[in-house]
Design brief:
By secondary structure, chain A is mainly beta. Chain A has no helices and eleven strands. Chain A is globular. Chain B is globular, with a radius of gyration of 13 Å. The chains are: A mainly beta, B mainly beta. Chains A and B meet through strand 4 and strand 5 of A and strand 5, strand 9 and strand 10 of B.
Amino acid sequence: GAVVSQHPSWVICKSGTSVKIECRSLDFQATTMFWYRQFPKQSLMLMATSNEGSKATYEQGVEKDKFLINHASLTLSTLTVTSAHPEDSSFYICSASQASGGGKRPTQYFGPGTRLLVL
Amino acid sequence: GENVEQHPSTLSVQEGDSAVIKCTYSDSASNYFPWYKQELGKRPQLIIDIRSNVGEKKDQRIAVTLNKTAKHFSLHITETQPEDSAVYFCAASTGNQFYFGTGTSLTVIP
């Protein structure tokens, strides 16, 4: 199946700093990438949907100035947590989706996740 | 937007028994319903999916049913094994976005 990588897998940072997380589709072109946040023992909460070359669509309650998303190419999307605070500590997972046209199912492939700890 | 509800939140079954997880969705435009298995600390893995033009799909010990009229779909695991223990998520998609259920923590007792 398709492979999605995410970097870094772990990051610890001081409060007030910014952290950038990369999501890459390694063997396919992802027309759409999704960013999720997952708290321990809870579901994946969709934060935003990003399409290559256009602005990300943020879910209600997600601060776009806090969580900056850039989808620079068909294989790379980045999430930057700006001025991170302890409450931003979480597990962030990206996923990439191939085009769903032509009767294909809109399958999404998940990255391995990034665990962020803000001290 | 779409609202996906999932029940139960936890489920314990004896090895060999069946497990059933149910989800409901609110957006009638949703037409694709994947199920994911997530083991602790790992990424979700797609285990089975169904499209809205199909009522049931089976893959070995796993099956999914969809009732489009009632807007609910279910995951059935038969002959459960300890390695089936994980958190399972349902999701609903219109093709552009995916919305997840709250997850079911399944424990298969040997």
